[in-house]
Amino acid sequence: EELSTLLLTPKNEIIKSLLLKGISVTPNQLINEDIIQQIADEYETKIITEPKPIITTKTSKPISTSAQTQRPPIVTIIGHVNHGKTTLLHKIRNSQTNQKEAGGITQKIGAYETIFEHKGENRKIVFLDTPGHETFSSTRSKSLSNSDLAILVIAIDDGIKAQTIESIKQAKDANIPIVVAINKVDKTDSIKANTERLKTQLAEYNLIPEEWGGDTSMVAVSASQEYGIKELIDNIFLRTDMLDLRANPTCEAKGIVLETNINKTKGITTLILVQEGTLHIGETIVIGDTWSKIKNMVDASGKTTLVATASSVITIQGLLTTPHTETHFSCFRKVKDAIEFIKMKKTNTDFPKTPLVSATHSFIKQENKTEINVIIKAESQGLLEAVALNIPTQKHPNVNVRITKASVGYVTETDVEFAITSKSEILAFNTTYAPEAKKLANKKNIIIKDFKVIYDILNYISALENGNKSRNE
Ligand code: GDP
Q: Name one GO cellular component term (predicted).
């Protein structure tokens, strides 16, 4: 997967070309340097390895021989809307051993760490929380690709639905095991008969229960009645223990960006997942082509922390730019090493930047076309990407909606100045304004529209594209 980003080549192509060489791999699998070099040769790309490459994978054993220790599993809850995902996560968090750890985190942080007793030991599970709405399907598959296991929630009284099927596919694409939580069993008089029926239906999607000789755990639960939760948690540990999740605690930290926000008081806050090594306060983090010293880290329970180990989700503050979600980061104890690393990346690979909005639209200027320019501002990178990825494709033949800028944060004076020069209107999604920005926009007649719900902003863009709205409307 990482290689496919670096080579700007779809992962299926890489997998196919390896299969032709007789090497069978999955998207998240670790591959050794020789094979990487063979693929790179095909794309006429030179690969230069970092001094100490330590790579782990969730599906195969790490090749690094240095001291690896067990790390907690990362879990995403998936399933059809209203089948009980939110209720289940809430009850799981309440049922943890150390209640204090629950802390004051908000929904927005997007991750929860919970501690449970399993076989006499206190063990942690990290839950990545994703917006439930189908529009956030891409966000969900990103969460899955960073997870070790998925819990698929299916309400027994509603059965397999469209989003259940989509969820199964997304978990399979991410190559992670699924534990099925058959929920709302309090609503049925014949749990046994109904769960058996559901299991038969799930077999059609290749989810075969363990008791039938398959490898999928299926647990009957009632989230609202808090029934079956302990069994579900035990199953998560059993499944993830089979994966033997390990990471090296001694090396410099590496991981992935989950989300970025900008707000007036804290500036840029970035939610990251540490996948390898240990991150200490004061180290330098390199994300994409920017770097900064980590002065402040907040853990998933909302507390300031000085260290973060593998599988920790933490918020850091003070980056100079907003990184895209899914960007990999590396940390360095010495600033000099961080700078070297950036230089090396720049000269070797001319690092590709993730196309955010431009890929979804083509902006060839044509005669007789009405051009409508828009600037999109959104509260977070996740929301911005959700808009970019869901922009409707049906367009009016004579109208061209052009996104001149898309960025995270509140609407600033600079945005309005840019709107003036580029003749754009500003679409603000779930975000606010700097006071001067509002004044300037009023003075210069710049249209600013506020949206709170993703459907509204998408409908508005669609209306613009279909010629149903004019700039003055
Ligand atoms: P989500 O959309 O998948 O996150 O579903 P929610 O957690 O919001 O639940 C949808 C509805 O189902 C809510 O009204 C819950 O109270 C209800 N619900 C969730 N779990 C159970 C359960 O185990 N039994 C019953 N009877 N209702 C449940």
A: chloroplast
